[in-house]
Design brief:
165 residues, two-stranded antiparallel sheet, 18% strand, homodimer, alpha+beta
């Protein structure tokens, strides 16, 4: 990324407080491995407590805690269902806010496919439903939609930057 | 995402082992909050031990451990430097494999800007160096570069999928 000397106002990255860093704020909510694996399963259609527990290999206590936090954060919502002969239970569905984490999961998956996979290949094969071509995650310019490399991006401190105390 | 009933070969997502899930493999390497915050700082030009430590607010022990793991994983590399009058020390630079995590950090940042920021605004303002338009992370089709929503993507089990034991 391109940084032309000091940022606006003369403050440097190292002098800026990270209290309102959006990466940090996101990790405060979902920056825990089990939480991200629950979201991976949710994106792939898993909705029920026992399915999450068995598929991810989580204890009931940890899964309950992480689901509760994701519901409290508005990333999952509970929807009641009832199997014949059973009591009503809740299943967990992604909200719009939850689906907005899809690019995070796709970016994690892309790096894993590139750098951390064995010869057996990946678990999933994701394709554009319209044309069956593979999909990928890119950083692009909002104006002309060109895929960008880190060197194409200028970084300045933003409106919320303030000095570290 | 679109799943047309059972995946290839009749195996469902819930029946597939996640042992070779690329999301999981990536999180095995970088799926820890401090690790991702170290990478955030590295992407923003931080290279020296004391700068990471002060800016992120990490103990020396935790920082040493995380840097060592990132070097062992080939995500950071050490490059010696020497300040006048001091002994030679190492600084930490992202490798190509490390820069490939840039879309992960950008996706985390994008979600945080959308859903977790206060009124003061974000810490950084990232723009296309060529045209000064904001940048964004999208999932796109490799063939026609259209930005995709989850509903536009077909998910099948991949070549490496095998049943859970």
């Amino acid at each position: 990324m391109t940084k032309s000397g000091p940022y606006d106002g003369g403050m440097e990255w190292l002098e800026a407080s990270t209290e309102n860093c959006p990466v940090q704020r996101t990790l405060d909510v979902v920056g825990e491995k089990w939480t991200l694996l629950i979201l991976r399963d949710a994106v792939n259609g898993v909705r029920r407590f026992d399915d999450f527990r068995r598929h991810i290999g989580l204890s009931e206590a940890v899964l309950s805690d992480r689901l509760r936090k994701l519901v409290a954060a508005g990333i999952l919502k509970t929807v009641p269902y009832r199997e014949p002969g059973s009591r009503s239970r809740n299943e967990y569905r992604l909200t719009r806010k939850g689906w907005d984490l899809w690019p995070v999961l796709m970016a994690l998956s892309q790096w894993g496919q590139l750098h951390a996979l064995g010869p057996e290949g990946p678990l999933l094969d994701l394709r554009h439903a319209d044309c069956d071509a593979p999909v990928r995650v890119v950083v692009e310019c909002c104006a002309d939609h060109a895929a960008l490399a880190p060197g194409d991006v200028t970084v300045r401190l933003g409106s919320g930057a303030h000095a570290r105390s």
